[in-house]
């Protein structure tokens, strides 16, 4: 589950990308060690190794928990780099000056050993570090900056303009009405000063009898029906929203920002939500998981001192007092939901249900979490059966049908799948 | 095809067609549902007011959702993942009852107990008591810390006071139940030594001293023999309820079950003779059962000895002749199966047990089915020593007394005397976990952990060891009793290290598998059990029975005119140690089907003579007097009760166990006879029973949910008939359609379901179901089934998802009422577990107006509580009567907080299964075939990208069953056990499987609801002519 941005921001992003690409070609030139391959396969292979092992702490062009890596083969010898990656602690222990310098620079934070990486793996990794995703940092920055505007904008006329235009139209029409009314009264007054025949006089001064209309059966029936229908509609709509907490964004005890962690730093969701592929509960991370990084990162934006929000984690750990987060997504007890089924087996993205979590400064409930919403998805979603022997028989039995095998076809709409 | 023409009935009122019974049977729900508290009915206006108010309140409440917290760990333990269960091997032991178990924990809370498959003793089976013991961990009545003279105290002052006072107390005695743990024994010995060699006195609430004593006399063996019922072709039991309550019932049931499995390929099974006074669970399973008076039982054993001695050419013993039906037949068959038979007796009289030893020896069973070379240690109680202790205590000769987790004031015959005596001791200490009858009398209470919070080891049998480990941090400020003993002995090591050291020196150093102690320890702890291999052999000894025979001749009489009392233990309550557990109180007794009571079981003849008529639980109370003790108990008419005898169960009449059990029933321990040097459970002299005018209602479930006179629910045959025709006893209904007769399944209004992936089903072998009820408690624990209390059971509203129907039957041809009643003096018994049948043509599904009950694509009949509006149409339309209605909100309701503790207490709620909804008021519920387990098993398979393996998903009832009578599986899987059992040759996707097993049948096949639960006919190992 990589972090995906919402579609609306794509056009903007592409243009920035193109612009930045030219910029970067012009300005960012690394003198990478010529022994490092720039072959596409090597970069691709390196990327997967990087994502699996390094990404939590490193970025290519940005200082994170560890240093920005691009250009590492320029700064150090390839052989040294490999030894450092394999087992930095051993290298530091041996008294290697370069290693010790880096160790001290990064708060004596030990990097785990990667003895399992072979020579080829390391060369691929270095290929990615030097030649992969060149616009990584700038794209992230650009996206971070333009995220809010892009989210609000859609295609066509923005909705608030529409309201204004309609408002103006209503105003114009009302003015026309007033003007017409004035004209009528002026004309009537003028005509009354003139000598007219009786018929004409009657015509001009005829009384429009509203009372008659109000008392007519047809009117009463129509109005009553409309009123009842409106009340009923409102009542039913309201009743349907009882217990639906869509948009619920409670204040949390710590102002934790998913936008910062999952958005800017692109941390994997599973890094903190460890249970998401194991079982029913995705797990709110325990404080010791926060401490993996916040042992070292004590403030935001390179400020000095300890951020008061991060201090709350330290307090929790020091006092052995768990952090009482406010639950955002509350399913009723009568329905059973299992994260592992959806994420590990079904391959559903976190964002499908939780929305653009990487853009949320404060987490809110994106989906309605109603049964209708669940069922709709079960009707539309294909089973991810490829490579899963469990589904073989179902796929085989379904092979006559032209439509793809959906969740609904294998009992995904049955009561006891969620209610027991 | 031979249909059987027996008459089956569930209770005497059904047999006699009592009008009250007929009226109730026709009604699905009892008339005029009562309202809790107060009888004044509420008017319609009140109802409307209330409705208006609650509607308004509901809409107001809905405006703002309550804030819910999500609280993660500060430091998450590596092996605990929220929502994923962990399993730990451990051991249950109480008063000599033993089971090696696996404890399921969720987020660090034990919530379910299963048997440990690796255990050579109980295997995967458990009993109701073991299954329910997890709730006792969360019992509010547990002590939360140490007490001194009834005041809460702290551990350090308790320790210093106990140490100094015991040192100056003079003679110190330690009283305990059987200690199975070698390390605990060592700690106790250390403690005893440090106080001048204090004597350790062991007694058991349910004593088997007689067997121990006899083993010592005959063979010089310390311990009980190890029995092998699975190796016996002929089983003869004199009053030993070895399937229900005797010594190690789970183990024996497991062995017995193996001998009762039968198939066309191997049509053999054990033959079981039972001679007993009360109708026990074991007697109910016997092929031949003879009611025998307790006063005759010793003579019956002697008669069997003489019959066998005659065949063996050994000297016979003198004894009064006694007429016992089937005894000669038993002797003949035992002789024919020498070395492959077994004779046991439940008597606590050492003389009787000596004769039993001699019989087994003559039959060459010694070393084959009865093994003295590898003795069992389940009961170490010494009644003689205990009686001497009571005398000493009473005489004030005991300076200090320490009770180690035992409650003799309640559960020893001379409890009252002990209660008096404790006050005479200078120092009295108890380690009991609750303020029970004994603990409330002592000065110092150092409460022990619950067993699920403790470390311990066990040596239940020579060469067999097991461990228990904590599955939760201590809930209260309690301390493991062994730690207390070590502390008082001045040893400051903790018991965990002590235990490990003990294993290092006694077991690790005598094995050669591994040289690393940690590895040895970890593996033993992981497995929960550790065995030292040793061969069994026969033990020779002194088998002269002449003195025993003389003693028997003196004690037992062939013709005793007086009423006799046989005191027994119930499967669910046992000794009463766990009686404060509502799951056990509400479990209906396998035989009497009564809940929440003990009662005097009487024969029909006695009832008639004394003018007692029992209808639907309504009965009279009787006063039973023995010497100067008397008790007033309700009377229950029990078919099968030996004439001239009455029975009364132990384990009731607690006064200080807690709010669940206090005041339930009467305490029969007071009636036990301790005058003979052993605790005598058979009182043959001086018993008078008088009927009083008090009416009483016993909450029995037996006549609830009947089949409205439909026949062939039970299908059975004799072994002889089965050998001739594998479909013997089967009823094969035919439906007439368009000129021909056909199977009911060929005629259907329905198109039929398609099950493309799974087709879950159950196969229930009525031949190996012994009716023990372990499944019913397992289901209650797994599925958060509410306990409703006695009054609601009387209102026929018990919530059990699985019940064991107990049918009595009379032989064919008895037609008149009087004949039937005579037959009912000793009826045959059949047990039938009954749960939702998950019908493919389910009658409940079609009548639900809101589609709250529907059919799944895997063959399950699904019940959706949140959709149910409580019309109860489905329950009315269910031919099996397995749907239960929530008449009340049983959770968070003070009216039920005293009985339904698992859904009312903060503490009790910790036992709930978080994967199963706690049902609200006004909805129907029923067996879901443990759909939560099915879903979780499927998910595991999907995550590992493979098919579901047979056996990895199992229902709670099937897991708990000690005899494997219930088998769950996928009928679409060609390799599953259920497919093999039912002989399904083609695993099609059709709901209607072609089942080729002749014994398999559907209950009520003629109505073609097409269940997914199959029953296998019961086969009785009887001669053909006697069917």
TrEMBL record, chain B:
Domain 4Fe-4S ferredoxin-type: 760-790, 827-858, 859-888
Enzyme Commission number, as recorded: 1.2.7.-
InterPro entries given in the database record: 4Fe4S_Fe-S-bd (IPR017896), TAT_signal (IPR006311), TAT_var_transloc_signal_dom (IPR030948)
PROSITE patterns in alphabetical order: 4FE4S_FER_2 (PS51379), TAT (PS51318)
Pfam annotation, one family: Fer4_11
Alphabetical UniProt keywords: Oxidoreductase
GO molecular function: oxidoreductase activity
Entries under NCBIfam families matching the protein: MoCo_extend_TAT (TIGR04519)
Protein name as annotated: Molybdopterin oxidoreductase, iron-sulfur binding subunit
């Amino acid at each position: 589950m990589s972090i995906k941005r919402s579609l609306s921001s794509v056009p903007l992003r592409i243009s920035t990308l193109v612009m930045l690409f030219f910029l970067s070609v012009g300005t960012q030139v690394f003198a990478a060690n010529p022994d490092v391959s720039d072959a596409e396969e090597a970069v691709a292979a390196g990327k997967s190794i990087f994502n699996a092992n390094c990404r939590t702490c490193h970025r290519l062009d940005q200082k994170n928990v560890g240093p920005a890596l691009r250009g590492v083969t320029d700064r150090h010898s390839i052989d040294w780099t490999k030894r450092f990656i394999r087992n930095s602690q051993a290298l530091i222990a041996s008294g290697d000056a370069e290693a010790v310098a880096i160790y001290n620079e990064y708060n004596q934070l030990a990097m785990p050993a990667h003895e399992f990486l072979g020579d080829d793996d390391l060369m691929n990794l270095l290929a990615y570090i030097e030649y992969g995703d060149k616009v990584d940092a700038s794209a992230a920055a650009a996206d971070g900056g333009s995220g809010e505007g892009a989210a609000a904008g859609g295609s066509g006329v923005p909705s608030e303009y529409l309201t204004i235009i309609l408002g103006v139209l209503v105003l114009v029409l009302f003015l026309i009405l007033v003007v017409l009314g004035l004209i009528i009264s002026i004309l009537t007054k003028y005509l009354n000063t003139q000598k007219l025949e009786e018929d004409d006089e009657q015509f001009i001064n005829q009384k429009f009898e509203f009372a008659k209309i109000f008392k007519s059966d047809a009117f009463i029936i129509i109005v009553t029906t409309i009123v009842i229908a409106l009340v009923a509609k409102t009542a039913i709509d309201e009743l349907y929203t009882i217990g639906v907490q869509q948009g619920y964004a409670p204040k949390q005890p710590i102002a934790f920002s998913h936008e910062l962690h999952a958005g800017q730093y692109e941390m994997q969701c599973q890094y903190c939500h460890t249970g998401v592929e194991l079982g029913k509960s995705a797990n709110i991370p325990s404080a010791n998981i926060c401490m993996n990084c916040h042992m070292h990162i004590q403030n935001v934006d390179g400020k000095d001192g300890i951020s008061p929000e991060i201090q709350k984690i330290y307090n929790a750990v020091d006092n052995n007092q768990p952090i009482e987060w406010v639950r955002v997504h509350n399913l009723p007890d009568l329905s059973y939901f299992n994260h592992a089924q959806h994420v590990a087996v079904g391959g559903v993205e976190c964002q499908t249900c939780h929305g653009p979590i990487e853009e949320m400064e404060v987490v809110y409930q994106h989906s309605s979490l109603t049964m209708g919403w669940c069922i709709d998805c079960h009707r539309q979603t294909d089973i991810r059966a490829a490579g899963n022997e469990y589904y073989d028989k179902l796929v085989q039995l379904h092979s006559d049908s032209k439509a793809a095998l959906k969740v609904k076809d294998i009992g995904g709409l049955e009561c006891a799948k969620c209610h027991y | 095809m031979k249909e059987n023409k027996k008459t089956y009935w569930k209770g005497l009122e059904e047999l006699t067609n009592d009008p009250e019974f007929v009226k109730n049977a026709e009604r699905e729900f009892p008339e005029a549902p009562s309202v809790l508290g107060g009888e004044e009915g509420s008017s319609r206006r009140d109802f409307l007011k209330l409705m208006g108010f609650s509607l308004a309140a509901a809409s107001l409440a809905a405006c703002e959702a309550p804030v819910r917290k999500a609280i993660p760990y500060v430091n998450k333990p590596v092996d605990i993942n929220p929502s994923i269960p962990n399993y730990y091997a451990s051991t249950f032991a109480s008063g000599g009852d033993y089971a090696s178990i696996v404890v399921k924990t969720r987020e660090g809370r034990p919530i379910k107990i299963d048997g440990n498959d690796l255990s050579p003793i109980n295997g995967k089976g458990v009993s109701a008591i073991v299954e329910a013991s997890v709730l006792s961990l969360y019992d509010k009545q547990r002590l939360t810390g140490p007490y001194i003279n009834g005041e809460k105290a702290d551990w350090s002052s308790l320790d210093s006071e106990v140490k100094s006072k015991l040192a100056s107390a003079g003679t110190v005695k330690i009283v305990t139940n059987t200690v199975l743990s070698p390390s605990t024994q060592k700690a106790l010995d250390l403690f005893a030594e440090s106080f001048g060699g204090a004597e350790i006195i062991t007694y058991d609430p349910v004593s088997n001293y007689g067997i121990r004593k006899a083993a010592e006399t005959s063979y010089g063996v310390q311990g009980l023999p190890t029995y092998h019922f699975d190796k016996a072709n002929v089983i003869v039991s004199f009053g030993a309820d070895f399937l229900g309550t005797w010594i190690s019932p789970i183990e024996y049931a497991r062995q017995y079950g193996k001998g009762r499995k039968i198939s066309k390929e191997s049509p053999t099974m054990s033959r079981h003779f039972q001679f007993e006074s009360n109708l026990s669970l074991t007697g109910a399973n016997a092929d031949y059962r003879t009611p025998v008076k307790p006063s005759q039982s010793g003579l019956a054993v002697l008669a069997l000895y003489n019959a066998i001695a005659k065949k063996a050419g050994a000297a016979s013993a003198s004894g009064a002749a006694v007429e016992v039906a089937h005894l000669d037949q038993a002797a003949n068959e035992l002789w024919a199966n020498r070395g492959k038979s077994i004779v046991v007796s439940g008597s606590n009289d050492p003389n009787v047990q000596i004769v039993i030893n001699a019989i087994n020896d003559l039959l060459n069973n010694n070393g084959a089915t009865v093994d003295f070379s590898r003795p069992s240690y389940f009961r170490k109680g010494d009644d003689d020593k205990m009686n001497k202790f009571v005398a000493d205590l009473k005489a004030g000769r005991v300076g200090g007394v320490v009770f180690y987790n035992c409650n003799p004031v309640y559960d020893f015959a001379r409890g009252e005397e002990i209660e008096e005596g404790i006050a005479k001791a200078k120092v009295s200490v108890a380690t009991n976990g609750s303020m029970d009858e004994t603990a409330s009398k002592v000065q110092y209470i150092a409460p022990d952990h619950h067993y699920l919070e403790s470390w311990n080891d066990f040596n239940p049998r020579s060469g067999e060891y097991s461990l228990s480990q904590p599955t939760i941090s201590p809930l209260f400020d309690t301390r493991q009793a062994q730690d207390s003993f070590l502390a008082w002995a001045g040893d400051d090591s903790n018991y965990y290290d002590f235990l490990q050291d003990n294993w290092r020196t006694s077991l690790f150093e005598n094995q050669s598998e591994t040289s690393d102690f940690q590895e040895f320890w970890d593996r033993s702890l992981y497995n929960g059990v550790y065995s030292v291999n040793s061969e069994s052999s026969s033990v020779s000894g002194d088998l002269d029975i002449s003195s025993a025979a003389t003693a028997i001749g003196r004690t037992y009489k062939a013709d005793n005119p007086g009423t006799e009392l046989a005191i027994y233990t119930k499967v669910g309550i046992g000794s009463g140690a766990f009686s404060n557990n509502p799951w056990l109180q509400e479990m209906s007794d396998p035989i009497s089907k009564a809940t929440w009571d003990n009662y005097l079981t009487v024969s029909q003849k006695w009832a008639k003579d004394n003018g007692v008529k029992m209808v639907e639980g309504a009965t009279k109370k009787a006063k039973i007097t023995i010497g100067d003790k008397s008790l007033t108990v309700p009377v229950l008419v029990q078919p099968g009760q030996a004439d001239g005898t009455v029975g009364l169960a132990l384990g009731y009449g607690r006064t200080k166990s807690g709010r669940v059990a206090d005041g339930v029933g009467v305490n029969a321990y007071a009636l036990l006879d301790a005058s003979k040097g052993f605790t005598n459970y058979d009182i043959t002299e001086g018993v008078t029973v008088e009927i009083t005018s008090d009416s009483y209602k016993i909450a029995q479930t037996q006549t609830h949910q009947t089949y409205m006179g439909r026949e062939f629910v039970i299908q059975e045959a004799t072994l002889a008939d089965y050998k001739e025709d594998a479909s013997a006893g089967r009823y094969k209904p035919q439906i007439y359609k368009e000129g021909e007769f056909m199977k009911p399944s060929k005629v259907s209004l329905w198109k039929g379901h398609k099950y493309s992936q799974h087709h879950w089903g159950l196969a229930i072998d009525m031949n190996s179901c012994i009716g023990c009820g372990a499944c019913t408690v397992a289901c209650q624990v797994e599925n958060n089934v509410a306990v409703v209390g006695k009054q609601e059971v009387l209102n026929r509203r018990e919530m059990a998802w699985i019940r064991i129907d107990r049918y009595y039957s009379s032989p064919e041809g008895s037609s008149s009422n009087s004949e039937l009643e005579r037959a009912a003096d000793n009826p045959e018994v059949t047990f039938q577990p009954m749960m939702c049948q998950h019908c493919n043509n389910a009658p409940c599904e079609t009548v639900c107006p809101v589609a709250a009950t529907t059919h799944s694509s895997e063959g399950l009949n699904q019940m959706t509580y949140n959709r149910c509006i409580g019309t109860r149409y489905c329950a009315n339309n269910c031919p099996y009567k397995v749907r239960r209605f929530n008449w009340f909100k049983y959770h968070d309701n003070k009216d039920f907080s005293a009985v339904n503790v698992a859904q009312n207490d903060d503490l009790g709620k910790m036992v709930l299964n978080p994967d199963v909804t706690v049902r609200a008021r006004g909805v129907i519920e029923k067996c879901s075939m443990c759909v939560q387990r099915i879903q979780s098993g499927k998910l595991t398979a999907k995550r590992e990208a493979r098919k579901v393996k047979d056996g990895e998903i199992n229902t709670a009832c099937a897991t708990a069953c000690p005899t494997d009578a219930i088998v769950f599986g996928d009928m679409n899987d060609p390799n599953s056990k259920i497919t093999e059992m039912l002989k399904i040759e083609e695993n099609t996707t059709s709901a209607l499987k072609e089942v080729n097993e002749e014994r398999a049948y559907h209950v009520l096949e003629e109505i073609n609801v097409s269940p997914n639960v199959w029953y296998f006919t019961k086969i009785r190992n009887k001669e053909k002519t006697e069917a």
